[in-house]
Amino acid sequence: MSNWKPINKTYLYDGTLEGFLSLVFDCFVSQSLPHKIEVENNYLSNFLEQPLILKTDSQKAKQVLAGIEKNIGYTTLYNIYYAFLSNEKEKEIDLLKYMIDGFKFGPKINHRLTISHVSKVMNRKKRSFGECHRLKGLLRFQELNNQLYYASIHPDNNILEPLGHHFIARFPSQNFVIHDKNRDICFLYNGNEYQIVDSTNLKIPNISEEEQKYQELWKLFYQTISIHERKNPRCQMQFMPKKYWKDLIEEP
């Protein structure tokens, strides 16, 4: 990053991956490294700085993606995607620095873990991917009265989209909704295409009678096979963190 010019400026974008990659494109063109990068809706204005709002441009984003895949490799794209889904602050600056060094070192950048921003990107990617992987097995769909399948989740990271794609691959003809209650957004799939929408005013229909019967049977089975004397909440939490219990049908 020796040729890059650090500037005491805050760049704002719309919070999407496409918006962030558009910002990255503009940074590469100007060879400037902003002091901070923040989501426009989350930014608290103050009289000490004048932020620069950068607009989303799909063509710029595509050029950045193509450049990364060609010069740094598909693995780096994978790392960037999952690290971007992290809920941690300052992820954007670390990702920008990671990409700058990536174009300098090529695919070898992923092995330079002694570089602070590289190790931070890898750790964020690991946490986001790990949470997504866990929820693929823990997510519980319920059949609603309108023959729609619904599941609620409370993830730490914004992993709704990759999780939704996983279930599209498993149930390509099934209508379903995955509801991220921590962010008030829903992944909607109608058997043909998907959409991620705001769920602030979402009204969930009641579960179907058949679903209610299956839930009662499952709870009865769970209670029947459990041995009260051997109940070990601490051990349960090691295999299934307590934060996920609220979205389960059975009660651990």
Write up this protein.
There is one protein chain. By secondary structure, the chain is of the alpha/beta class. The protein is built from eight helices and eight strands; from the N terminus they run E-H-E-E-H-H-H-H-E-E-H-E-E-E-H-H. The chain has helices at 17-30, 58-71, 74-84, 91-105, 116-138, 160-170, 209-225, 233-239; strands at 5-13, 32-39, 52-53, 142-143, 149-153, 176-180, 185-189, 194-198. It has a five-stranded mixed beta sheet with strand order 4-5-6-7-8, with helices on one face. The protein has a three-stranded parallel beta sheet with strand order 2-1-3. The chain is elongated. The model has no long low-confidence stretch (mean pLDDT 91).
Instruction: Characterize the main sheet.
Output: 5 strands, mixed
Q: Radius of gyration, rounded?
A: 22 Å
Strand order of the largest sheet: 4-5-6-7-8
Question: How do the helices and strands follow one another from N- to C-terminus?
Answer: EHEEHHHHEEHEEEHH
Tell me the overall shape. elongated
Distance between the termini: 51 Å
Number of DSSP-assigned strands: 8
Beta-strand proportion: 15-25%
Question: Are there runs of 5+ residues with pLDDT below 50, and where?
Answer: none
Task: Average the pLDDT over all residues and give the rounded result.
Answer: 91
Number of DSSP helical runs:
8
Structural class: alpha/beta
Fraction in helix: 40-55%
Write the layout of secondary structure elements.
Layout: E1 5-13, H1 17-30, E2 32-39, E3 52-53, H2 58-71, H3 74-84, H4 91-105, H5 116-138, E4 142-143, E5 149-153, H6 160-170, E6 176-180, E7 185-189, E8 194-198, H7 209-225, H8 233-239
Parallel strand pairs: 1-2, 1-3, 5-6
Antiparallel strand pairs: 4-5, 6-7, 7-8
Helix pairs in contact: 1-2, 2-3, 3-4, 3-5, 4-5, 5-6
